[in-house]
Amino acid sequence: MVRIEEDQENIPGYAARLYDKLARDAIDTYYTPIAKEIAEVLSYGKLLDVGTGPGYLPIELVKLKPDLEIYAVDLTPELIEIARENVKIARVNINFEVGSAYHLRFEDDSFDMVISTGVIHDLANPVKALDEWYRVLKPGREAWVYDPTLIVPRKKIRFWYERLDGEELVLFKEYAKRIPPIIYTTEELKKILNKTKFKEYEIKEYEMGGERELKIKLKKVPLQKV
Ligand SMILES: C[S@@+](CC[C@H](N)C(=O)[O-])C[C@H]1O[C@@H](n2cnc3c(N)ncnc32)[C@H](O)[C@@H]1O
Fold this sequence. Notes:
39% of the residues lie in helices and 24% in strands. Helix 2 (27-39) crosses helix 3 (56-64). It has eight helices and seven strands, in the order ααβαβαββαβαααββ. Bound molecules: S-adenosylmethionine.
């Protein structure tokens, strides 16, 4: 199995605009339903989105909950640039910045929630990343991690091909070569999660935007005093 190295950009700069275009098509079917789920449990406080890409999930979320203070990081500078353009168009406020899932600049115990969509399968060292997200979460708070159970099913690739032409199609085919053929089953994920500092978690497989997704809720259990 091929996994990208730690801190190596998953989405190469040249494919950032393309990813943005494809992600935009999924706002209503994917990002908005997830934003609604999160909005049901969090109305204010600090939230961090790790590997935010073009930023559509936090943008949809802050539209629903304008009192949230949202930070969103991604390793790909071109995507952060696009996310900043997207947030301007949406006329909302989010702090987008280039940053690594493994080395966050934030203080311990500082976030009310950490979220991440479609990132965990890409990480060379998911245990290290999850421990870093644990560090920045306040005790008693949760990280919600969404990940596809099937990376780019054939049906979806055909759907994308039909929406692209000319140079975009050439770029997409180049980008598609880099998409790692990796999926986690629930059992594989459990093995990973058991190595992290999160001692309470729940994994659910469900349908989102016409695809199977894994939704993982991880709780930072406050340490017992002895
Ligand atoms: C499939 S995209 C998902 C983007 C976004 N969360 C979404 O749902 O549209 C994976 C994202 O993870 C980012 N990424 C990969 N490795 C990373 C790392 N070590 N730290 C931060 N971001 C990373 C990539 O740049 C890319 O934007």
